[in-house]
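Q: Structure tokens for this one, please.
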Amino acid sequence: MYSFLVGFQILMVLGCFVFMIIMERQRESMLSKLMLCIGFFGTIQNAGYLLEMLAGNIGEAMTAVRVEFLGGVFISTFLFVFVARYCGYHIPAKVEALMFCLDGLTLLCIWGYRYTPIYYSRVSFVTEGLYPHLILEKGPLHYIFLAQMIFHMVCGFVFTLRASARSGKEKRNVSMIALGFCCIFPILGFACGWFNVIDGYDPVPACEALSIIAFGIIIVFNHIFDITITAHEDIIKTMDEAVLIVDADGGFVEANDRARELFQSLSQFRKGEQVCRENLKEVFSDNSYFEYVTSNHTFEVHANKIWNNRILVGYSIVFVDMTQSRKQLEQMKMLKANAEKANHAKSEFLARMSHEIRTPINAVIGMNEMVLRESSQEDVKKYSMDIKTSAQALLKIINDILDFSKIESGKMEIVPTEYELNSMLNDLFNIFSLRAQEKGLRLDVNIDPKLPSKLYGDDIRIRQVLINLLTNSVKYTRKGTVTFEVAGERDGADVILHFMVKDTGVGIRQEDIPKLFSAFERIDEEKNRDIEGTGLGMNISLQLLKLMNTDLQVESVYGEGSRFFFALRQTVVDAEPIGDFKERAKRAAREHNYRASFTSPEGEILLVDDNRVNRRVFCGLLKQTEVQITDVGSGRECLDHIRQKHYDLIFLDHMMPEMDGMETMQHMEEMEDNLCKDTPVIMLTANAITGAKEQYLEAGFDDFLSKPIDQVKLERLMMHWMPQEKVHSNT
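A: Here is the predicted structure, written as tokens:
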């Protein structure tokens, strides 16, 4: 029996030592370090008790007792701290310190048993019995320490039971309960020792060693310290998606809480039990994605194969609830439809606004053109030139909004044509010399006299960019000078123009320069709140220059002024130098002579426009052509006239009361007694919105002419559509 007990005790020492080695290799967290300490102290305790069993006298035996308690006094405290932390309970640091202090006091009293009877009141050594052993009579501290150990074990057991009740995982429930029984197992040793079941043998160290070894087995087999497995379990558990894992034959392996909520029958399945293949037929037909629809939910089901050494061992099936996403998608579709509807309404608004503003501007520009043609007084002609440039500036406001709409929709195009450089510069000078004078500013214009007089490019867009730059310089300069410079250098058949606008205005902070090109955004709003503007000009200018393969450069010093410049390549049509453009600008007002490009005394035109002034402007513009014009004010009058007479060309306005141009055109096509079925019909309108021309052509019109009417375009269009035998060219 003695040999058996010694052998058993050796096994306990080896078991604790092996446990310590295993824990040393798994030092991945504070919990594993606590278990390493428990294994270390358990090894020392059982090694000490083994030496006590082999001792031949009281001295050797008490030395062994000291070694035994060097490890034994700390085991229960470390075990209690480990279980509390593993189960998620927080033990105050002061309480832990107090327990370790009691352990330390106990160890001191045992080591100094000769000097204090607090833990052992009397020690003796006997040779009778199974083997020579110590007889230890306990003092008061022994019972206090014993009470602490029993408290640790009972509390550990309670902690594991409560943690098991909180856990939703079957596997973790089993491990928790097993750890709980390991906690209270040493109490069996206390009971056996109390009743002296084996004379002279203390079973407490062995029971604590068995408890430690059982802890090790549970930790290893349940992968308690394996972070990857723990993380895997926790992630699956906390996923919002339902996760079901089955083996290759459809046997149940695992399901998270969300899956059990979705399929309540899963709670009845045990591991290996067959899951209905009919419900998961898509998985077993090698579909990696399909949909699962319930009464009020729609799920995207993703099936992933699980391989082990190239052998299919199962499937992980993830159910992603797409109900909310589908609702959001439907809402987004509805919002998109509403946005498109709003965008269409915006386009309609811009079209109407364009018409309403362009109609009076057309009258102003047209009547002013009559004054320029028919007046012989130089002062009157000078005033008329000022009216012309101011009207063009007014027209810019609506053009900015329309151009922004075109740029926004990607339909802005650069349309190159031949143009007079001096004429463009002269118009700019006329506009901004007056504006600068009104603000008390000096406009300094420096134009290279060697620049070619006629170029090929989109002068309308170049003019628009320069107007924006000069407008901003005049607006944001309170005193000083605005400088406008144009220089150039020849490059083969092209000329590279260098435009520069410089001012002594408020300037721009460096961090605000990017905002300069943002739509509807103004810089230093508080300081410049008295300055009007939409905030579109610079954004449009930048986009236009990019379409012309160049870029706008900015240099500015806050409080001192700004400099805007860009280079633009243009094809030279006429290399004759422009000379002194200021002198030519003065002559332009004196020598403004107009001559029609054709005459057509036999030609007959029907003009339909509800605006009386616009009809007068139209007739005045064609006065020199000698064409016969019949003008009416409504669509119904138009229908009456085409029943009675044939016309060579019909100009039809769009926005008219009672019956607009589109409706009139439809009636014209449906009329059987229409004498003008083969007559070209031109849409004459102030609507210049993107896509308007295509809309009119699709409605049956032959061509399109926008207001304000361009004299050159009007005459060119008439020469194209009127019968050639009735057109007599003046060239």
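A few notes: The longest helix spans residues 323-374. The radius of gyration is 50 Å.
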